[in-house]
Amino acid sequence: MTAPRPDLAGLPGLQGSLFDQGADSGPGPLCGVRRIPLGGRGDAWVDHLPGWFHGADALFEELAGCVPWQAEEREMYDKVVAVPRLLAYYREGAPLPHPALVEAREALDRHYASELGEPFVTAGLCLYRDGRDSVAWHGDRSGRSATQDTMVAILSLGDPRDLAFRPRGGGPVALRLPLGHGDLVVMGGSCQRTWEHAVPKATRAVGPRISVQFRTRGVA
Predict the structure, then answer these.
(1) Quick one: pLDDT at residue 73?
(2) Residue 184: which residues within 8 A CB-CB, separation 6 or more?
């Protein structure tokens, strides 16, 4: 269910990165990406590259203002609750809201072509307005990713928020990555089937963050 379009006038200010001032928006090289094996069942891994996207804070400001953000609601425990983040979705073939995101997707396609064997075709965007916004433990297991290995690439803009990983079914957090200001993370192998990830609520004061998730055809 979709709620009325949100008013972003009261969005907290972005705490800019000292390393991202005055840069043109665009992806950097991917040669420095670090692969982190997750272990456990299956061949799950996470690629991580801090500061991959230059001019990330300027891009955040543009996306915060131009994307048609939607507040959604869902049924939970016999009542309707607000989804604790704002959302936007660009299906396959839909124009992305900024040319720099096209550049980022094309760079990811080139880098992962031999390993992935197909392009990223959709983009889902989440706007975490403050530390109260979050996403619960889950895996992207709708569609092909329920039975097949795939990749989900996430570009993070704005103030850092933790992306946490744990084995599917529960257990302690095995990996925690603070993502923001142009950081890249790519979840691959069996990660969506054998692991769960979450953006927990933050107890400290944090500014807003946008997550851009690039996915392949038939993965949600």
Answers:
(1) 75
(2) 30, 33, 47, 48, 49, 50, 52, 53, 153, 154, 155, 156
